[in-house]
């Protein structure tokens, strides 16, 4: 039972930062950025490559995050600031094109094989009934710290208030003297930096690989939509729910269905769990679990 | 007098904010009724509630005896109710003529359209004749092949009236029809709308221009903070104590003088 | 070389069918379906499962179209009260679920290996005549679909779809049942896409879960956006361009001596770049939809 809880928390920490970033950017840019998960993929590659080249791990993580953020600012400057004017559909397809280019770049730069950090092998810590890999613990610790920092940034600072004001009512915020362009750039930077860091942390367990972004696409969107796109902290809870569902499906004993003592859902279907939850969420709560506002149809 | 539209006890609140609080009134066939009231008195919400865009919390809305309050907008249109919007948004990639044709929704099914046939061609010809007629009456013939989104605000208003009329409604609801329309055209509009009423189409008009209301309407419904505070002829408005009460504070009572 | 050109032409025709099908939804009705490939996959797998069950080919194709249309009803139902971008994500999820199901159904759908030795519609012809005959069949199918699409766009139904795409609130208050319009467009699209999938499976004599990758949907989308959504000629031009890049990059590999991973990267990157440039400089596509001036 404890192991189950731990696995859930570990998986949700994988999703949390990236989903938080996606939701943050959606709140301002008002379109689902498909390229967002590719920032995570690039962050993973950047961090792994830097670490293998001799950079200390902490520095590699930080630099990967900065790199992803800077890339997003450039993308926003050249692509999204122009496409957004033509409506969310065009912007969404533009993000799709960007995602293709980023995947192609990773494929051309490295190839299809995964690339892992060069870390000393360490035995898992045994804490009572719990097996904890040090890498997992590190990823969860960093995620928690960054989440707390983001919460403080959004809820406790002037900048955070400006971001939320702009997300709620752009014309009013602009009239109140907020520099919308600057804030949008800042939010793109922050969102992608979170995604890059999330990807780099994820690579601690899985290594960096070309399809890392594509594999994350639906779980991340499911998490962000469950929390209500544009509600950053909701996305973290959405990630928790998705992780819970995935872990539950993995560990669910469905032997009683077949009259056997032990039978589990085939591992291949685990990925489908989050999509099914996403569909249910969209059917039942089209605007997320924590949203009571009336919105456009 | 027989009634066409009956509104009884309609109530609507947005997030605890009561916008309509028990609105009652009725309209007969061919009657021209104005809805006036200060900003925020619930006029547009009332129109949205009747046309099915805003579900009401309580109350009954009947058109010719059929209840409307649970129907979707397209079903309400099917019962003979058409409306225009305060700020009509028009398609970018359709011409004015095409928008008018699209406003006639008869025989638009997939198979009927794909297979064609004599009936389909006859319907298309009838729609084109009707659309051409309304283009002329609404003075839009000159912009027939312009993209509808490129029209001026006033022309869009006229086009949305034309769209509403393409469906042969029994009741037409206009949301501020004269805002942005050239003053010369306003007189033509009065004549045209009176012509519609003479054909038996009832009109419910939300309007700020008291000259227009005074010339056109037989009766006025005055809304204030979601309640009907008065129903009277336009000429009686400036003597009505509740009406003065409603307008004092938010808008200057001078606007009412115009209607006399 | 001639055979290679015939192969490219046939593939272009089959993808053209898929793109025309997507155009019915995305171009005419403005529906952001990012799970379009699910319809194609259902059509392709119907041929495969039909062979395993011993059905004649026409029956499997018909069953595929019927199943795709059922899926279409479900997908359209999902969109009844969703904003369009949310619906796009939902359709992406539906397509992934279909892919995961066939990937894990090793008994009925062949699992990751897929199903091979599928029957084709032209198996009765001699082996040497088949490539040419299939190209002609493909051209005929695309021409028919293009004619029907253009006819639909000019009809009263097409006009209603345009009004739905441009101003849904106006369409709704003019008496159009938006849910029904969306459903009709999705059903027509699903049927054509499933047919394209059946033909593709019949042409390659093979079907696998890779046919259902989300990247395939994105490929069809780029055809639509590069050429010009909403206009049949534009969609066909986009198909030819994208299919050209896709097929002739391997030729460049042989000329320049590139690795196979570079080919994949080059294909993806080139199509992404063309799509992005098109969106930035000609967001309506190379052949944009025209205003219809009527007599």
| Molecular shape of chain C | globular
Helix % of chain C is over 70%
How many helices of chain C does DSSP assign? Answer: 11
Shape of chain B: globular
| Number of distinct beta strands of chain C | 2
Low-confidence regions of chain C? none
Helix content of chain B: 25-40%
| C-alpha Rg of chain B (nearest Å) | 19 Å
The assigned CATH architecture of the largest domain in chain B is 3-Layer(aba) Sandwich
* Largest two-chain interface: A-C, 47 and 43 residues
Largest sheet of chain B: 6 strands, mixed
Number of domains of chain C: 1
Strand order of the largest sheet of chain C: 1-2
Would you write up a description of this structure?
- With 297 residues, chain A is mainly alpha-helical.
- Chain A has a domain at 2-119 and 126-213.
- Chain A has twelve helices and two strands; from the N terminus they run ααααββαααααααα.
- Chain B has 260 residues and is an alpha/beta fold.
- Chain B is globular and about 60 Å long.
- Chain B has a six-stranded mixed β-sheet, sandwiched between helices.
- The longest helix of chain B is centred in the middle third of the chain and has 20 residues, at 118-137.
- Chain B has two domains: 5-89 and 170-257, 3-Layer(aba) Sandwich (Rossmann fold); 91-150, no CATH class.
- By secondary structure, chain C is an all-alpha fold.
- Chain C has one domain.
- Chain C has eleven helices and two strands; from the N terminus they run ααααβααααβααα.
- Chain C has a two-stranded antiparallel ribbon with strand order 1-2.
- In chain C, helix 1 (2-29) crosses helix 9 (214-227), helix 2 (37-53) crosses helix 8 (178-204) and helix 3 runs antiparallel to helix 8 (178-204).
- The longest helix of chain C has 28 residues, at 2-29.
- The mean pLDDT of chain C is 91.
- The B-C interface holds B 51, 53, 72-74, 77-78, 82-83, 85, 88-95, 97-99, 101-103, 105, 107-110, 112-114, 116, 120, 123-124, 127-128, 145, 147, 160, 163-164, 166-167 and C 148, 151-152, 155-160, 162-163, 166-167, 169-178, 184, 188, 230, 289, 291-294.
């Amino acid at each position: 039972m404890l192991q189950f809880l731990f696995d859930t928390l570990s998986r949700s920490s994988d999703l949390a930062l990236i989903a938080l970033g996606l939701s943050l950017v959606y709140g301002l840019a008002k379109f689902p950025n498909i390229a967002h998960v590719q920032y995570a993929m690039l962050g993973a590659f950047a961090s792994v490559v830097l670490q293998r080249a001799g950079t200390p791990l902490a520095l590699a993580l930080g630099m990967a995050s900065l790199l992803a953020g800077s890339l997003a600012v450039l993308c926003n400057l050249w692509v999204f600031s122009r496409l957004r004017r033509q409506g969310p559909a065009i912007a969404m397809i533009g993000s799709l094109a960007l995602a293709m280019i980023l995947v192609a770049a990773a494929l051309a730069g490295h190839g299809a094989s995964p690339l892992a950090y060069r870390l000393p092998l360490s035995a898992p810590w045994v804490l009572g009934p719990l097996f904890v890999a040090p890498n997992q613990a590190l990823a969860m610790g960093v995620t928690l710290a960054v989440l707390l920092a983001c919460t403080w940034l959004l809820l406790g600072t002037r900048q955070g208030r400006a971001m939320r004001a702009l997300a709620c009512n752009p014309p009013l915020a602009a009239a109140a003297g907020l520099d919308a362009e600057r804030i949008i750039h800042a939010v793109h930077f922050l969102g992608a930096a979170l995604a890059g860091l999330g990807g780099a942390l994820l690579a601690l367990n899985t290594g960096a690989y070309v399809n890392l972004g594509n594999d994350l696409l639906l779980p991340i969107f499911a998490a962000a939509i469950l929390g209500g796109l544009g509600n950053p902290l909701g996305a973290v809870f959405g990630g928790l729910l998705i992780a819970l569902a995935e872990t539950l499906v993995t560990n669910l004993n469905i032997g009683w269905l077949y009259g056997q003592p032990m039978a589990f859902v085939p591992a291949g279907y685990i990925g489908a769990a989050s999509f099914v939850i996403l569909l249910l969420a969209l059917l039942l709560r089209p605007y997320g679990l924590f949203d009571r506002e009336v919105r456009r149809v | 007098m027989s009634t066409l539209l009956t509104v009884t006890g309609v109530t609507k609140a947005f997030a605890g904010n009561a916008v309509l609080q028990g609105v009652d009134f009725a309209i007969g066939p061919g009657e021209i009724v104005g809805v006036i009231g200060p900003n925020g008195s619930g006029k547009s919400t009332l129109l949205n509630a009747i046309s099915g865009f805003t579900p009401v919390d309580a109350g009954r809305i009947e058109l010719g005896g059929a209840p409307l309050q649970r129907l979707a907008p397209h079903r309400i249109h099917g019962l003979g109710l058409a409306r225009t919007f305060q700020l009509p948004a028009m398609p970018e990639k359709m011409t004015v003529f095409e928008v008018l044709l699209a406003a006639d929704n008869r025989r638009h099914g997939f198979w009927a359209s794909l297979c064609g046939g004599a009936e389909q061609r006859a319907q298309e010809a009838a729609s084109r004749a009707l659309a051409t007629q309304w283009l002329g009456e609404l003075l839009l013939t000159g912009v027939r092949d312009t993209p509808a989104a490129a029209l001026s605000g006033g022309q869009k208003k006229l086009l949305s009236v034309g769209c509403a009329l393409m469906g042969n409604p029994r009741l037409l609801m206009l949301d501020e029809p004269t805002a942005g329309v050239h003053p010369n055209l306003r007189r033509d509009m009065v004549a045209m709308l009176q012509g519609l009423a003479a054909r038996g189409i009832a009109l419910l008009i939300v309007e700020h221009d008291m000259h227009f209301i005074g010339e056109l309407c037989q009766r006025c419904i005055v809304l204030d903070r979601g309640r009907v505070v008065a129903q009277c002829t336009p000429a009686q408005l400036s003597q009505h104590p509740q009406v003065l009460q409603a307008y004092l504070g938010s808008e200057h009572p001078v606007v009412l003088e115009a209607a006399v | 070389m001639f055979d290679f050109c015939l192969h490219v032409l046939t593939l272009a025709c089959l993808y053209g069918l898929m793109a025309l099908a997507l155009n019915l939804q995305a171009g005419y009705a403005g529906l952001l379906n990012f799970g379009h490939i699910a319809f194609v996959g259902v059509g392709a797998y119907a041929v495969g499962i039909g062979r395993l069950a011993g059905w004649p080919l026409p029956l499997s194709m018909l069953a595929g179209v019927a199943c795709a249309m059922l899926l279409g009803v479900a997908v359209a139902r999902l969109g009844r009260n969703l904003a369009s971008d949310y619906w796009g994500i939902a359709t992406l999820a539906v397509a992934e679920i279909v892919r995961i199901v066939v990937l894990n159904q090793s008994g009925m759908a062949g699992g990751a290996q897929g199903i091979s030795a599928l029957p084709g519609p032209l198996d009765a012809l001699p082996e040497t005549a088949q490539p040419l005959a299939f190209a002609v069949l493909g051209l005929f199918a695309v021409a028919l679909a293009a004619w029907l699409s253009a006819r639909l766009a000019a009809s009263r139904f097409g006009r209603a779809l345009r009004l739905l795409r441009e101003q849904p609130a106006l369409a709704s208050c003019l008496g159009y049942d938006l849910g029904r319009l969306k459903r009709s467009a999705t059903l027509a699209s699903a049927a054509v896409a499933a047919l394209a999938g059946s033909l593709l499976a019949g042409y390659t004599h093979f079907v696998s879960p890779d046919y259902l990758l989300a990247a395939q949907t994105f490929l069809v989308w780029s055809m639509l956006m590069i050429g010009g959504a909403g206009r049949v000629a534009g969609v066909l031009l986009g198909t030819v361009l994208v299919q050209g890049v896709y097929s002739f990059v391997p030729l460049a590999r042989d000329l320049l001596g590139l690795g196979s991973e570079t080919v994949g990267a080059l294909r993806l990157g080139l199509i992404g770049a063309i799509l992005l440039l098109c969106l930035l400089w000609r967001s309506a596509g190379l052949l944009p939809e025209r205003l219809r001036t009527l007599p």
